[in-house]
Design a protein that fits this description.
322 residues; seven-stranded mixed sheet; 13 strands; globular; binds N,N-dimethyl-L-histidine; alpha/beta
């Protein structure tokens, strides 16, 4: 790092990850967690309203329709920790049903301060709720919640929206094992998983005609320009969506329209991208209906119930830690 740039904390970590992902000689890659700055999070909120992207609506529909049934299967009394709460909109149904049965502590765990504040605003009107937000990475936040747990209460972890799909399958299993390691036997996990569906439907969901997902993808380069003093020409990249049938995942890439050299001052990096060269920005894995049960076993849980949406194949899976 040159001495004239003083790059600290989160910016330094972002810079190091960008240098690692773009500075390599083989396939270039940027980590999908960096898609969610304030602009990216706002664009994702819009994506969740698009008719082509059914994931968020299916998730919310299942929670709304089955909230009482889910609560009836939980080991009560229970505290709720949510990994990546976002604005907390779809969680409302479950928390309302739970708060009718018991006073409930709700711990949203989010790296975005804006999302945490929005979540508190959305949900604090629920009777008998106590909200304590954790501005942390998922596992770090969950470990803190577990360290301060009330010994007379179980913990229910919510991991909704099929965010697990943004991990490669082996990394997803490792992550779920880590969640299990932090929990105690009898604690619960409610996991949302987007299911396989016809190819055209999947492609449209990630390559919508309004170009919102394309903007969401390109915003990653805009964020590098803003935060790391980069000079990406945002018009120089196409949003490319592919489905890998072997891995059963949607992939988002950014493809250089022409050969171009980009300088990113705070990452101390100059990189040339050849015409047609791509930067991989996100994977979104899709599951068979049976797959989550196997994932549960591999991670040290057992499945107690699964609910599948009729309009948009998506499953809510309730697991108990063994
Ligand atoms: C947050 N995550 C589950 C979304 C998904 O479907 O993989 C992110 C997303 N990327 C493009 N559209 C939505």
């Amino acid at each position: 790092m040159p001495s004239h740039t003083s790059v600290t904390g989160e910016v330094a970590e972002f810079a190091a990850d960008v240098r690692d992902g773009l500075g390599r000689s083989g396939r270039k890659e940027l980590l999908s967690k960096y898609l969610y700055d304030a602009v990216g999070s706002a664009l994702f909120e819009v994506i969740s309203l698009l008719p082509e992207y059914g994931v968020t609506r299916a998730d919310e529909r299942l929670l709304r329709i089955h909230a009482n049934e889910i609560v009836a299967m939980l080991p009560l009394p229970v505290s709720v920790a949510e990994l990546g709460s976002g604005t907390g909109r779809k969680t409302r149904w479950l928390l309302q049903a739970l708060c009718r049965r018991q006073p409930t502590s709700y711990f949203p765990i989010e790296i975005s301060r804006t999302a945490l504040a929005a979540c508190r605003r959305q949900l604090s009107d629920i009777d008998s709720i106590n909200i304590v937000g954790f501005e942390r990475e998922y596992l770090e936040g969950l470990a803190e919640v577990a360290a301060g747990r009330n010994p007379n209460r179980r913990i229910l972890v919510l991991f909704l929206g099929s965010t697990i799909g943004n991990f490669d399958r082996p990394a997803g299993t490792l992550f779920l094992r880590e969640v299990r390691r932090i929990l105690q036997p009898g604690d619960a996990l409610l996991l949302g998983t987007d299911l396989e569906k016809p190819l055209h439907q999947l492609i449209e969901a990630y390559d919508d005609p309004l170009g919102i997902t394309a903007a969401f993808n390109r915003n990653l380069l805009a964020r590098i320009n803003r935060e790391l003093d980069g000079d990406f020409d945002l018009h120089g990249f196409d949003h490319v969506v592919r489905y890998d049938r072997t891995e059963r995942r949607i992939e988002m890439h950014l493809r250089a329209r022409r050969t171009q050299t980009v300088t990113i001052a705070k990452a101390d990096l100059t990189v040339t991208l050849l015409e047609g060269e791509t930067i991989w920005t996100e994977s979104s894995h899709k599951y068979s209906a049976e797959e989550p049960s196997h994932m549960a076993e591999e991670a040290g849980f057992r499945t107690v119930a699964q609910w599948i949406d009729r309009e948009w194949p998506f499953a809510e899976n309730l697991w108990i830690a063994e």
